Amino acid sequence: MPIVTIQQFPRSVEQKRELARRITEAFAEVYGAKADSVQVFFSEVDGENWAKGGVMGCDRAAGSR
């Protein structure tokens, strides 16, 4: 049972739906896994819970992540 965890900034449900579909297809094709055995977990992080180079995401200029 493949489990994929994705950490990312918030995205639309449409984008996550498409990504989950493609990841599932890739596991089925490459590993021969049954599609219904593939699990995808999305962990979304906002700028108040992330930092880069010692600077909090919420303090960074938009687009410079």
Automatic annotation (TrEMBL):
Sequence ranges assigned to domain 4-oxalocrotonate tautomerase-like in this UniProt record: 2-56
SUPFAM superfamilies hit by this protein: Tautomerase/MIF
Pfam families tied to this protein: Tautomerase (PF01361)
InterPro entries: 4-OT-like_dom (IPR004370), Tautomerase/MIF_sf (IPR014347)
PANTHER family (UniProt xref): 2-HYDROXYMUCONATE TAUTOMERASE (PTHR35530:SF1), TAUTOMERASE-RELATED (PTHR35530)
Keywords: Isomerase
Transmembrane segments annotated in the record for this chain: none
Source taxonomy: Bacteria, Pseudomonadati, Pseudomonadota, Gammaproteobacteria, Oceanospirillales
Family assignment from sequence similarity: Belongs to the 4-oxalocrotonate tautomerase family.
Source organism: Halomonas kalidii
Presence of keyword Isomerase: yes
Name assigned to this protein: 4-oxalocrotonate tautomerase family protein
Isomerase among keywords: yes
